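User: Sequence in, structure out. Go.
Assistant: Echoing your sequence, followed by the structure tokens.
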Amino acid sequence: MQPVPEQSPHHAYPDHWEADVVLRDGGTARIRPITTDDAERLVSFYEQVSDESKYYRFFAPYPRLSDRDVHRFTHHDYVDRVGLAVTVGGEFIATVRYDRIDERGRPASAPADQAEVAFLVQDAHQGRGVASALLEHIAAVARERGIRRFAAEVLPANNKMIKVFRDAGYTQQRSFEDGSVHLTLDLEPTAESLAVQRGREQRAEARSVQRLLAPGSVAVIGVGRTPGGVGRTVLRNLLGAGFTGRTYAVNRAFAADRVTVDGVPAHRSIGEIDEPVDLAVVAVPADRVPEAVADCGEHGVQGLVVLSAGYAEWGAEGRERQRELVRQARSYGMRIIGPNAFGVINNAETVRLNASLAPEPPAPGRIGLFTQSGAIGIALLSGLYRRGAGLSTFISAGNRADISGNDFLQYWYEDPDTDVALLYLESLGNPRKFTRLARRTAAVKPVVVVKGARHSGSTPPGHAVPVSRIPDATVSALMRQAGVIRVDTVTEMVDAGLLLADQPLPAGPRVAILGNSESLGLLTYDACLAEGLRPRPPLDLTTAATPQDFRNALAEALADDGCDSVVVTAIPWVGEDGEAESGDGEVLAAALHTAAAAGPAKPVAVVHVEIGGLAEALAAATSTVALPRPPAQPAPAASPTRTGATTPPGPGSTTPPGPGSTTPPGPGSTTPPDPGPAPTTPVTGAPVTGAPGTRNGRIPAYPAAERAVRALAEAVRYAQWRRQAAVPGKVPEFLDDTIDEPGTAGLIDTLLGPDPDPRGLQLAPDQARELLGRYGITVRPTLPAPDPDAAVAAAARLGYPVALKTTAPHLRHRADLGGVRLDLANETALRRAYGELTELLGKPAELQPVVQAMAPRGVDTVVRATIDPAAGAVLSFGLAGAPSELLGDTAHRLVPATDRDAAELIRSIRAAPVLFGWRGAAPVDTASLEELLLRVSRLVDDHPEVVSIALEPVVVATQGLTVLGAAVRLSPPPARTDLGPRRLPNY
């Protein structure tokens, strides 16, 4: 039971320091502050520590704690003296303590910013990463309390503790004094400490998943006494899959003399099993689950798959039941898949685990599949089964109260049996973390996502997630920035997954089309153009083509350096008697297999219509031997040939040039940007060769040209992203004097005041101009014009020509309503415009008119940055007015943006040609626009109190740009769960 904390005379009990963490071996533990009620726990804990560990802690034999010690170690003010404990099953397994000290090492209070720190870990739990996790959390606590450095004295023989400090990644100093090692750690997070923290997080969470997917033994709790029911079905599937470990059936209602069920040992509880149980599948009513969890936790079970329903999907009472389930399981160090789960499958030959309700178990393969919906999971498994696709692992997480898609991305990142990750998600519990993990995983293997509940405006039952204010289109753009292949339907996910798992990545967008139907070839050609690919004119083999003709044509297309992939179209061919024949699909499949295996490694997809047995034969691998692949090189420029290859884009293209290009595009081309240099692996630097796996002999088949081409286009875009990700962009430092970070921080503190309004503060125009100016963003000033004489005086100060604008909220940025008058060259024109404005739209007090000096002519754009509670800081760009507001033509990138992000941002909108010289106009200064985007990104990244920036309009001319309007909103900084110490989410 959780201790009841005592109120400290200095500070209330800090419950926000409580956290569940995953340890190095995949088990969980709880970190919390030590309270006065922990005396007995502390004494019991200390009694289980070895004499050697006690000696290392106190530098002398210290067999037991005195009453004074116990009082000292359990009474803290949570400011100058803080103690944290790690608990499993409610008992201490480790402690850490800091005491604030002055420069002479004596006890002190603020403003002293140094503390002495000491750890103690039970010997039975050493090597689990407990001290490393404690150091992360006690460092975060210390920073919160104004402590900037830790000092520690460690005996030279205490190598484990020295390694904990050394490997933490903090800036540190070390010296040898009076027979001990003196360490000083600067607690300011560094790039190295963050990398260390995330590396440990990845290994721990991947290990926690591995314990669930590769158990040595499984107990099914809730196996019925008679055939039928959920528990009995899972047991049957375990046995049918040939699980390599031990299996047990558990039901408290079993008769005392019952020995087996379906040949499996039968027990009434986990406690009756005289061997360790690694995984328990719980299939009992929700009201009996706590009893089963306690039975498992008390007997060392490592993880749970909870199939039982009746939790958060049933409303408020169920949500509280679900929270208690997670708390109970984690208190024993267990992780949970579920509740309301469909089960898990691991097809590894050494495991062969099917702890699910799947009626059609998939064959072994290279695809990992995660789904939050059992019904969608059934549909996906059925679809993959019909198309001959195999899975490495399958997880249906149900309410995903604990283990989520993020955990499986951690596992799949380095799983050698998985080449492609498919995820059906209905919610994102930690979107920032998902984006980070997806980006890292996508750099080595494709990640394909379908996001359900996109437009419902509500969270699916049972899912507790942060509320996001950004539209789904923005979420999609941010996913693609992270390399995620975002598709709309589960059918598209399967289509893309099959191509990515079975074929190499294309080196470029050039597609050869061949087949025995001119019409089907033309449909494929049109589909390629619609997806932004560069198809060559289809090669019609005629309806009289034989399998040998297909083989020869495919071999020739693959050998041609002018194409990067091939789509084969096939309909039943005409026999000698003139009648259409469905033909032997296996013969055609063999011909295509032979050509593909002998040719260069390029992706091949088949579109077929009513050819019996073809899809099945194509899905059958002809060999398990991995074939070598050449590097995915940039596509060479196409040249006119007898096959009709298209020429490179030139005048008339509508595609903006790639990032960094100074060549304006012209209308008419659908050519994607240059794919860039060949990618390399993040570890060895060797070229990335095609898809993460190797060609296994399977060729994906599709019943419609659009489906095949859409999957191929996703592969082309992903390959391009991966080539670019191999050489990532940089976040410029802006080493000039135009950025004043400390001064901006002071200004923000002044504006917010000592007691900031949690609703935030909208800055006045002068305040916004001053704040932005400290980051080198100049906003053209405006002067108020409450009457015509004031307008004339303002114009005299600014200099003619001027603009007269209304600033009333309902007229802001609405030039179409007549609220803006431009190019007023003299006093007469200004007074006339003022009269017309007030006569047309209302009194000056309502219009709030201002005068502003005219800016050079150019393209009106809008730059925004917002802090979304779920996604984090988002930088957005579009053309001002109808393109962005009416058509939603806006591009988005996560902050901090790199130089490549900024370049891609302005080229990603559909109206981008306007910036690059559309219809003969002069190209505008996109370099200045990119710099502005980077400065805005840097500002919101450096100062999380800046929760919203809107620069509108930003007029981009042929030389330079002018920011004419700016709106800035400040607020107390939102919590950043992705930057603190490792912790599991609490729902």
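User: And one key feature?
Assistant: Residues 1-9, 622-694 have pLDDT under 50 and may be disordered.
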